[in-house]
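Hi F.,

I've been meaning to write this up properly since the lab meeting, where we talked about keeping a consistent format for the predictions we share between groups. The idea is simple: the sequence comes first, exactly as it goes in, then the structure tokens exactly as they come out, then a line or two of notes. No screenshots and no reformatting. I'm using this chain as the first example so we have something concrete to point to.
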Amino acid sequence: MKNLKKITTVLMLLAAITLQLSAQTLKERIDQAKEIKVYFTNSDIKHNPNTNPPPGSQNKGTGCKAFTETTPIPADYIEAEKQVIDLLNKGFATTVFVAGDISTVPVFTEGIQKGSQNWLNLGEPLVVWIMTTGTYDVNNMGLMGDVNLVNSLAVSSALGFYGIVDGKIKVLGNKNLVNKVTPTKNTKVCDDYAYFVANFPLSSLSEAFKTSIAEKTTDFTVKEMADYDKAMKKKK
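Output, unedited:
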């Protein structure tokens, strides 16, 4: 769940700096754009063994050593992500959203943001970023010194709208699109990569992933359009 918590934390931080002072709605900004690129980042599924107890957690550490093997996001997940483009065009009644090439986006080369996308240097006035990741999770739920390892697969995806405002990058909107976890399996010993691949195939969350992306993207556009309609009524 570490990556899920990380994305949630990032979104909370982004929400905290979301543009508050501008009277312009996201829909209005979209209508001013000739083209808005949607960029996709798909990070490999990694092991999250919770070797030591997470800060603030009541769970005990697992003592499990993290394995280094990772699993790429499957093609059917990537295809499912692409529906965001059509859903944004439909929801915002436009045709400006198109697929972008994430490899063309510059990244920070130093500092705490090293390796992350430098949207300001990209220079596009408005972009959309879809982030998808996942973890093979292990938690120790044992009581009174007992070991009860609870294993699962978690997949998450999030959407962010970034715009250049007054020479700075601002977050103009964001939404958690997917937070899905498989049913758990309990063991007494730490398991390896082969165990997780066999017991938690990504195909088990494929349909839920696709459905959630469609539903949450639609929820996002409906809310933003409602804000737009409300703003237009005030201007009359």
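Notes:
The radius of gyration is 20 Å.
Helices lie at 2-16, 26-32, 75-81, 83-91, 119-122, 193-199, 206-235.

If this format works for you, I'll send the rest the same way.

G.
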